[in-house]
Amino acid sequence: MPDERLAIDGGDPVRSEPMPKRRLLGVEEKEAVIKLFDEAIESGNAFGYGGPAEAAYEAAFVEFMGGGYAKGVNSGTNAVYGALGALQLEPYTEVIVPPITDPGGVMPVALLNLIPMVADAAPGSYNTSAEQIEPLITDRTSAILIAHIGGEPVDMDPVVELARRHGLRIVEDCAQAHGARYKGRLVGTFGDTAAFSTMFGKHHCTGGQGGVVYTTSEALSWEVRRFIDRGKPFGLDAPANVRAGLNCNSDELSAAIGLAQIRKLPQIVSNRRRAADMFAEGVSSLRTVSRAALLPDTEPVYWFLRVRLELDRLSVGKEQFCAALNAEGIPVTASYRHIPCEAPWFRDRRVFGTSGLPWSAPQYGGDRSPDFDVSNTIAATSEHFNVGIHENYGQAEVDDIVAAMRKCEQAYAR
Ligand SMILES: Cc1ncc(COP(=O)(O)O)c(C=O)c1O
């Protein structure tokens, strides 16, 4: 007889087998890399960067996006850096940044001597919206940096309209949203520039680290190329480097992996959507757990699956509920509270030594307080948790997730 108690209380877990591995890298990537080495050994020339493999990967990326221009870089952080830097925003202007994002999705703002202004999330969301952005706009604002967190698209039409009305640039951070769609259109195509992370944990990768800067503007694509490669005068008739920039280049090896990977991306996206839909269907009869409400007319790509918990119907808090799920063999993350203005570097103004720059610059005439109203964000992070689904989760895994949630609900419902 199975022990029906919760596993956290000593009972048998719903799932005793580990969840399936992603198996993101396979023979296709291995063969692409071996081919590169074979060519290097045969020719005597080391593979470098900016060669045929990068061109092929960038062309495949552009094809996936349905047009535009792509430039491989060496991380998602540097993709954000490049996507912002290409816009040549005036230093000490304000950039509105996402309520939840990876540190690498916001640090480039301050490193470019721009002032990050943290927008709150839309109610019930990890993402911001035009309503939260608008009150932050001043005559010092130069750009809006959007992040489609968890692969859920931001409500872009009102953001685009707002930016147009105020003459602001838009940068989309699509690190977690490869292939996500808003009203049928791929995220990354709404802004002036967009950044993708292609480190190994993302939907598709270029190896251990990597990123892509994407734009639909040819003029901006040249700015991107120059800025991510020390200001080299690409597309210009200039004798030497035209502006200061870092070396954020990708390389042939990463691109060879990326080319094999991007061919797998459509399947990865559709499998994740299928798993998320099966989950939503599975938990529809539960009273305390549901898939987080999605914006209408969006097709998320579920970098993780955001789950809403009705805490007022439970006798335990979210931490306990999630600990119980983990004990049942279901990997979940209780909290995704990555709010830029709560981070020590942001609060302590530690960007350029102890100078307090960029906030302390005499040229900056705005409010220097590190405090922002992120009450919706805090509420959303306390009412949701993340299930780490991926493309190899099928019906059996989803059934186990749902069964564990049902079991925890029955034990903890009030
Ligand atoms: C939203 C977002 N932006 C930026 C980054 C930074 O990307 P990377 O880790 O490739 O530098 C990440 C990484 O997870 C991210 O999730």
Shape: globular
Mean pLDDT: 98
Distance between the termini: 27 Å
CATH architecture of the largest domain: 3-Layer(aba) Sandwich
Percent strand equals: 5-15%
CATH H level, superfamily name of the largest domain: Type I PLP-dependent aspartate aminotransferase-like (Major domain)
- Could you name the CATH topology of the largest domain? Aspartate Aminotransferase, domain 2
Query: What level of helicity do the residues show?
Result: 25-40%
Instruction: State the domain count.
Output: 2
Name every ligand kind in the structure: pyridoxal-5'-phosphate
How many helices in DSSP terms? 13
Radius of gyration: 23 Å
Instruction: Indicate the CATH class of the largest domain.
Output: Alpha Beta
Return the structural class: alpha/beta
Account of the 3D structure:
This protein has 414 residues and is an alpha/beta fold. It has 2 domains: 7-25 and 265-336 and 378-412, Aspartate Aminotransferase, domain 1, CATH 3.90.1150.10; 28-264, Aspartate Aminotransferase, domain 2 (3-Layer(aba) Sandwich), CATH 3.40.640.10. It is built from 13 helices and 14 strands. The protein has a 7-stranded mixed beta sheet, sandwiched between helices. A 4-stranded antiparallel beta sheet has the order 10-12-14-13. β4, α6 and β5 form a beta-alpha-beta unit. The chain is globular, with a radius of gyration of 23 Å. The two termini are 27 Å apart. The mean pLDDT is 98. The structure holds pyridoxal-5'-phosphate. Pyridoxal-5'-phosphate (PLP) binds next to α3.
